[in-house]
Structure formats: structure tokens, C-alpha cells
Backbone:
């Protein structure tokens, strides 16, 4: 008797957007690539990228043993080109990017706003500013952990959109 073979699970592409693409969206990209390994492939971009990742972002990712090579601050225009990866989900993680007119994403990906305070704008001592990065990391980690646990294959588009919006409204 032939063994039953499990149908391979669909792989999804996820884009995290923020204005500067130096902190929150980069953290989200790294977290999603770790938690969704093999099933979700994440990218990040900005509407007005800073051109460099904030050093505290890189320090925090290294502290938690995330790979940082290949991470870069880039424009969201890269993902609106015909040769760009087909996106299944687009999440804004800052309020200013959520309010901007985004490019038209090929394939009509599902989208939601998962706003998180900007750690790069934090004031205070270095310790207080680093704490703001850790807080952003924790909020994004919690939301992404919920997202990766969703039974996407069994949810219709409307139900999935409701769940994405609920994640963005979570109080972390």
C-alpha cells in the first residue's frame, strides 16, 4: 500500500513597510524569517528609506542570534517592479507609512496596519533608547508569532483579513 504523502504547505511572501526602513520593518523581516522559516519569506522596505539600518537594530538582532548579512534599507519601489517577488501580505508597521499612498502591488496582496512606536525616534539615555528598540522587537515578535500560527489554508480571505486586522489592534 502506498504511503499517503502530505501536500506541501504553500509558501507566502510578506513585506513589512515603514518610512525609513531602518528599525521596525527590518526587525519584523528578521523575526518573520525565523518564525516562519520555510513557510513565510519576509522582506522589508520604506517609502523614504534612510539608506542604512539603525545600529541599535543590528545590535538587537545580533544579541538574539539573527543573521544580519543581507539586511539593507531599501525603497518599496523595488517590490512594485514586474520582476519583484509576488507578495501575499503587506504590513505597515508605522503610522506614517500607513497613511501614504503605496505603490500598486502585483497580485493584490492582503494588507493590514500593525503600528508600533518608532524606536529610532526615542529620546533619553542610550539605555532608554535601546529599551525602545527592545519594546518594538517584543511587540513585533508577539504579532508575528500569532500570524504564523494562523491556519491560513483553512481560512477564507475575509476571515483571514479580520484576523490580520485583529493582530494589528492587539495591545501586545
Residues:
Amino acid at each position: 500500500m502506498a504511503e499517503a504523502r502530505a501536500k506541501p504547505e504553500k509558501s507566502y511572501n510578506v513585506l513589512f513597510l515603514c518610512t525609513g526602513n531602518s528599525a521596525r520593518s527590518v526587525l519584523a523581516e528578521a523575526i518573520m524569517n525565523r518564525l516562519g522559516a520555510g513557510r513565510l519569506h519576509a522582506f522589508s522596505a520604506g517609502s523614504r528609506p534612510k539608506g542604512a539600518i539603525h545600529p541599535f537594530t543590528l545590535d538587537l538582532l545580533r544579541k538574539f542570534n539573527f543573521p544580519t548579512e543581507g539586511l539593507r534599507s531599501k525603497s518599496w519601489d523595488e517590490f512594485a517592479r514586474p520582476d519583484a517577488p509576488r507578495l501575499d501580505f503587506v504590513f505597515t508597521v508605522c503610522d506614517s507609512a500607513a497613511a501614504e499612498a503605496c505603490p500598486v502591488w502585483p497580485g493584490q496582496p492582503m494588507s493590514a496596519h500593525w503600528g508600533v512606536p518608532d524606536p529610532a525616534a526615542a529620546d533619553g539615555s542610550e539605555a532608554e533608547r535601546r529599551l525602545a528598540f527592545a519594546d518594538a522587537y517584543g511587540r513585533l515578535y508577539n504579532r508575528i508569532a500569532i500570524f504564523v500560527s494562523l491556519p491560513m489554508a483553512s481560512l477564507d480571505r475575509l476571515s483571514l483579513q479580520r484576523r490580520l486586522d485583529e493582530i494589528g489592534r492587539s495591545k501586545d
User: Anything to note?
Assistant: The CA atoms of residues 4 and 10 lie 18 Å apart. The longest strand covers residues 12-18. Strands lie at 12-18, 40-46, 89-92, 110-113. The two ends are 49 Å apart (CA to CA).
